[in-house]
Write a structure and sequence with these properties.
504 residues, alpha/beta, Rossmann fold, Transcription Regulator spoIIAA, OB fold (Dihydrolipoamide Acetyltransferase, E2P), binds 5'-deoxyadenosine, binds iron/sulfur cluster
């Protein structure tokens, strides 16, 4: 745990403090009592599972939730067979929402058998009004719902949940009509609360939020509506957190933001992302620095120069393209043209030849034609991505593109025809992505490169899984004592997106 707290010093009979994070520590101390009493009643420790959907931001938020759960006395659990289950949700595409509803159906049956079980929902999907209405109507067994802006208040909300229900299970586990769901959703916030406990998934690497929210309003994207306005953490707080992580044995950090290239613009003393990277580089013990995500329109020459000079910044850039057609890029409000993107990619490759570039692509944006997909394929062939995440456009209510999709909708037959056209374009594009990436990744065959050993291979326990600086995965025989270390690995055979190798 990154922050050790002395709970014995907190007087929970007094009024809760107003200041953060002291207020949350107070509620953690209160929750500890509930958890202790309940585990004494059950004669075993209580368990909690945080089940995460979506991106790295959500993964990091889940580590914060886990840190709070652990500090109040829950043991971590992997799946829904836990006393407390929290779904940290994603809503970037509709299938993410559907997956959560599917899991809720399953957990309802578990909760009927296990009356003291508690269920919480949080994350991006909860920021949508229609979702909250649906939960109130159809998922009344849920105990707690909160959003993206108030996860720092998790302990306070838990205390309220424990106060409101009977944790000892004498009420009907939320199955009765009077069961009160605690719902706390904020529309937006400029608040950033520092110094709360965090439980890291990996001891040797960690994500670090450098900013929250997004102001770009790409026309298809729901993120600015559910994650709020862009706000940066102060460099002092970020550097302090990373220094503490380094002292705790973290070798690799991933700086997280929806658009890291606009980091620092709104700070009282503005600094650039490149300047922040220079500072992070000075921190002893940090051996690798990654970041995610870079909007092409904001990627500066200064950043390219810092990456080029750096021994620690990884040779990987995730540079979402979304579309290669200038017409569609304009409709997407991406604020760059095909030619500008290509020129940027070329400049990056010229300055940092060994870099791998990955991307995100959407197929089927309203009004997109096969000729637009051809333009995207042209960019894929020219840029030679190491990997590309391809998505079929998903209509997100409230976004400008959803309105475009509605205006353009035709008869059911026409819509079906369009769906087939989109699918055909997607398959065509995916094939090019796979072919180019396979060739591109294979360029390293025969080289010896450093890999950070992350874990024992899931399929074959004789193998370890490591990550190269350029983000490519390599599996190689080795002992699990190497986990967390950076070791040289001979890249023997390329298997599409990964390598089989040997430690040198
Ligand atoms: N439909 C499909 N893909 C989307 N993305 C964001 N919004 C949508 C949407 N409405 C994709 C983008 C983004 C990635 C995280 O998700 O490609 O970069
Ligand atoms: Fe969404 Fe665009 Fe912001 Fe990325 S930059 S989160 S795609 S609005």
């Amino acid at each position: 745990m990154e922050n050790a707290i002395n709970f014995n010093e907190i007087n929970i009979d007094s009024k809760p403090p107003e200041d953060e994070p002291a207020r949350q520590y107070y509620f953690m101390a209160k929750c500890r009592q509930y958890v202790k009493a309940e585990s004494e009643r059950l004669g075993r420790p209580l368990t909690a599972a945080v089940i995460t959907f979506g991106c790295q931001m959500n993964a990091r938020d889940s580590e914060k939730l886990s840190g709070i759960l652990e500090s109040i006395g829950y043991l971590p659990a992997e799946d829904e067979n836990a006393d407390f289950v929290i779904y940290n949700t994603c809503t970037v595409r509709d299938n993410a929402n559907q997956r959560v509803y599917g899991r809720l159906g399953h957990i309802n049956s578990l909760k009927k058998k296990n009356h003291h079980m508690k269920v919480a929902l949080c994350g991006c999907m909860m920021q949508e009004l229609s979702v909250i209405e649906k939960i109130k109507k159809s998922y009344r067994f849920v105990d707690l719902v909160f959003g993206t802006h108030n996860i720092y208040k998790f302990a306070e909300l838990l205390a309220e949940m424990f106060d409101s229900g009977d944790i000892c299970g004498t009420h009907s586990g939320g199955q009765n009509a009077s069961h009160r769901i605690i719902i706390d959703i904020w529309e937006n916030t400029d608040k950033i609360v520092e110094d709360l406990p965090v439980e890291r998934k990996y001891p040797f690497k960690s994500g670090i939020n450098i900013m929250f929210g997004c102001d770009n309003f790409c026309s298809y994207c729901i993120v600015p509506y559910v994650r709020g306005r862009e706000r940066s953490r102060s460099p002092e707080d970020i550097l302090r957190e990373i220094s503490a992580l380094a002292r705790d044995g973290v070798a690799e950090v991933m700086l997280l933001g929806q658009n890291v290239n606009s980091y620092g613009k709104t700070l009282e003393n503005p600094i650039t992302f490149a300047q922040l990277l220079r500072e992070v580089e000075q921190i002893e013990g940090i051996e690798r620095i990654r970041f995610m995500t870079s909007h092409p329109k904001d990627l500066s020459d200064e950043l390219i120069a810092v990456m080029k000079e750096s021994k620690k910044i990884c040779r990987h850039l995730h540079l979402p393209l979304q579309s290669g057609s200038t017409r569609i890029l304009t409709a997407m409000n991406r604020r760059y043209t095909k030619e500008q993107y290509l020129a940027l990619a070329e400049k990056i490759r010229r300055e940092i030849p060994d870099i791998s570039i990955t991307t995100d692509i959407i197929v089927g944006f309203p009004g997109e034609e096969p000729a637009d997909v051809d333009e995207t394929i042209d960019v894929i062939k020219k840029v030679q991505y190491d990997n590309a995440f391809t998505f079929i456009y998903s209509k997100r209510t409230g976004t400008p593109a959803a309105a475009m999709a509605e205006t353009m909708a035709g008869t059911p037959e026409e819509n079906l025809e369009r769906e087939m056209m989109v699918k055909e374009g997607f398959d065509r594009l995916l094939k090019v992505v796979q072919d180019t990436a396979r060739q591109r990744v294979a360029r390293l065959e025969g080289q010896i490169l450093d890999a950070l050993v992350e874990e024992v291979n899931e399929q074959d326990s004789r193998l370890l899984t490591g990550r190269l600086s350029n983000n490519t995965i390599v599996h190689f025989p080795g002992d699990k004592s190497l986990i967390g270390r950076i070791v040289p690995v001979y890249l023997k055979e390329c298997h599409g997106f990964y390598y089989l190798g040997e430690k040198r």
